[in-house]
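Q: Given only this backbone (248 positions), what sequence would you predict?
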């Protein structure tokens, strides 16, 4: 409850920060894009982990406001770089279920990218597979609209959801991210087989595949052998502040 109250105040005071973690080309370490991650350092409560405050925000109906504020921070960062004539990178924003299915989701994205003068192709939306895409028809329409407006999309935590792999071919998404629990356990034959299947599936559907939570040289080597080209994880970079990202 304390967290819920403070979170509301923090959102009003715009205290929620954004960190960026690169998605890299596994073979070279070259940065391909970034993922934006919410960070909260409360003057009253100290540092609170997103695993704690994201569920609170979801329960309290604040998640959309939080994710919209992260989007604005990212757009502002991109605009500053664009104005300075610096190179832009694509940035992925995590989008919760309620936010994804909310009627203002697409209009807000279109409106804000136009306001900041940032082309939609620089913004990617990551939606967790855990939602199971119960309402597959609506999900299809939302992904299709994102595509039509030129936004990139991604299915996060892939492999942990409750749906079969077959629904994936119906969704017009450009990327899937293999959940880090699988990357962690690739030494097990069964898990390795799952990772191999996901990579082949993505390839067959013409989607980009990203391995999450790459922590070791061994994992990198195995992923490359399986034909996975892009990864994200502590082996390459930890999430960093916008200022740190500017130094890359
Ligand atoms: O950032 P890690 O560094 O600790 O994030 C923990 C979890 O919180 C991850 O599952 C991540 O996807 C989630 N998370 C971080 N920022 C956001 C956000 O803005 N929205 C949503 N829905 N989840 C987020
Ligand atoms: O309509 P609703 O009450 O769900 O709107 C919630 C929030 O979404 C409001 O803050 C509103 O300003 C925002 N919103 C809805 N549609 C748009 C839009 O097209 N552009 C912008 N900028 N904000 C919108
Ligand atoms: O669920 P999502 O993919 O959005 O989660 C991103 C989360 O994963 C963040 O909490 C981020 O800090 C964390 N993360 C990123 N790379 C690694 C890694 O190599 N190992 C572990 N354990 N966590 C990671
Ligand atoms: Mn994510
Ligand atoms: Na994930």
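A: Predicted residues:
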């Amino acid at each position: 409850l304390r967290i819920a109250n403070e979170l509301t105040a923090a959102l009003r005071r715009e205290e929620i920060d954004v960190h960026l973690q690169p998605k890299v080309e596994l073979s070279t370490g070259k940065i391909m894009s970034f993922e934006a991650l919410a960070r909260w350092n409360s003057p009253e409560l100290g540092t609170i982990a997103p695993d704690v405050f994201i569920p609170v925000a979801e329960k309290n109906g604040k998640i959309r406001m939080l994710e919209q504020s992260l989007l604005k921070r990212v757009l502002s960062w991109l605009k500053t770089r664009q104005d300075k004539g610096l190179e832009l990178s694509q940035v992925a924003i995590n989008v919760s279920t309620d936010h994804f299915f909310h009627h203002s989701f697409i209009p807000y994205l279109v409106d804000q990218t136009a306001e900041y003068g940032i082309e939609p192709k620089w913004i990617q939306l990551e939606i967790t597979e855990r939602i199971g895409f119960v309402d597959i028809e609506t999900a299809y329409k939302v992904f299709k609209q994102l595509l039509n407006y030129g936004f990139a999309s991604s299915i996060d935590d892939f492999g942990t959801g409750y749906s079969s792999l077959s629904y994936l071919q119906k969704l017009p998404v450009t990327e899937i991210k293999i959940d880090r629990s699988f990357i962690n356990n690739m030494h097990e034959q069964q898990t390795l087989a799952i990772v191999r299947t996901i990579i082949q599936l993505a390839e067959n559907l013409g989607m980009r595949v990203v391995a999450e939570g790459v922590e070791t040289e061994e994992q990198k080597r195995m992923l490359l052998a399986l034909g996975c080209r892009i990864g994200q994880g502590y082996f390459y970079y930890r999430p960093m502040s916008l200022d740190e990202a500017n130094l890359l």
